[in-house]
Structure formats: structure tokens, C-alpha cells
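Cross-posted from the bioinformatics board.
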Amino acid sequence: AQKVTQAQTEISVVEKEDVTLDCVYETRDTTYYLFWYKQPPSGELVFLIRRNSFDEQNEISGRYSWNFQKSTSSFNFTITASQVVDSAVYFCALGASNAGGTSYGKLTFGQGTILTVHP
Amino acid sequence: ETGVTQTPRHLVMGMTNKKSLKCEQHLGHNAMYWYKQSAKKPLELMFVYSLEERVENNSVPSRFSPECPNSSHLFLHLHTLQPEDSALYLCASSQVGLAGVGDTQYFGPGTRLTVL
């Protein structure tokens, strides 16, 4: 069975601080994908990144960076120099085939981390 | 970003009403999804349509009835709902690949439903 754990329920930081959101996953599949989504107060889940299980290179996109470590089954997300506009709920998700496979990209979501950035 | 649109954005209905939620995707995708997001609960997958065929129904009560007339449109018909059905209903779409794994889902803004 697939499982995603985001142990941090809520994080509060002051603007310009760096913040890391943790994500730990469980799967028996050798091929899988990991995602991060951002949900601002407006409600829409905004896609941020997708990584496959064969690519452990860290990725940086502006103030965002992701650290994928297969050895610890983690895919952590760091925001550098946080801004008030980063305040949102962040979801980590796992896309794996599961037993028997599926005909679509089923995602297992974590519980989400509420990030509040204060001015 | 208007890849996936949902209407209405807010809906208040009584338990005896019948209403429908609409989702439209402009991304050329071949799979569409309905999720329910309640306060303090993880996202719950409700229904999946792949190539216009329903491929998943996660034990959703029959008072929720999905319809997918074509690959761009998805509806969720609601009738005799309960107050506990109040939630944010999110629609998503993806392009299903051969492996069926790892497709990126793109979400709409959601419909905030309140059942009185």
C-alpha cells in the first residue's frame, strides 16, 4: 500500500526565513513519482514539481528547492527567503501503480502542511 | 491559469435540493477526477473517468452521481445531501500515459459546498 506522511501539521515563520517541509513516503513499487502541490486560500491545488524514482538529483526553481533521498524515502521541499505569498497548504503526493496497476495516474496525498509566513 | 475550470465556485443547498457541479478542462487531457476535501481530512478521491469510462468509484454514496459526457467535461450531480457532505469539491484532469503511473494531475479552483 502507498502512504505519504507529512509530519508537520503547521509551520509559522517570519518573512525572509528559510523553511523546509518534510515528506516521507512508502511504496513497494520500484517505479514511482513524487509531487508537491500548493493550495493557497483560493482553494486551487497548484502543481509545483514532479520527480520520478530514478532521478535523485536535487532540483532548484527560483526560491524553491527539492531534496529527494531514496535511502530515507523522503522528498523534502525548501523555500528560501520566504514571502507572505508563500502562505498556503502544501501537499506531497505519491504516484505509484499499486498492486494490480491502474489505468490512470492514481495519487496518494499526504495530510498537508499549513505554512504561514508573517510579515 | 484557466486549464481546469469549475462552476459554481460556491454553492449552498438544502438537504432536499438537487444541484450539479460542473468541471471543464482545456488541456486536451483524457482523464478527469473528482476529489472531496473536508476540513482536517486528507484529499479523498471520489471518482475517476479515463477515456470517458468510469474506472474508479471509491465507495461514494449514491447521492453523488458523476457524469462524463466527453473528455473535456465532468459533472457531479447532487441530491438529498447531508450536512456532513459540506466540503470543497475539486476536479482534476491528467493525460494518462501507457504506464498509468506518474501522470500529473491539474486541479480546478474547487466548488465550496455547504449543505444546510
